[in-house]
């Protein structure tokens, strides 16, 4: 009996990305507040970067993923100079819909938790459709 190949995108794929917080990452800089700590939009961007990295080497040729839905709880402030890490795990594949659980930490402290949904799309068709719509 021949082994079935593992599907390219299956639950369990993970990735971790890091960011050392600079002045350009603060809430003041990105317009999401007036305090000099890591801004929520940058936390979200880091979480999404981890989801992209989790599937980057497993995508079918000509495909990409696009973000479709996000739930994010930003729980702790992170000052400039600290390094945060986002870890994403693909927890569900439903056709072209991919669901990730994400945790962002600063050492042992949980900075944010969330869920990110992405859709698997044909890169060229997606871009062509977006250009036509504009």
TrEMBL record:
InterPro entries: FlK, FlK-like_dom, HotDog_dom_sf. CoA binds at residue 67. Coiled coil: none annotated. Substrate binds at residues 67, 118. Residues 21-123 form the Fluoroacetyl-CoA-specific thioesterase-like domain. It comes from the Bacteria. The active site is at 40, 48, 74. This is Thioesterase superfamily. The lineage of its organism: Bacteria, Bacillati, Actinomycetota, Actinomycetes, Micromonosporales.
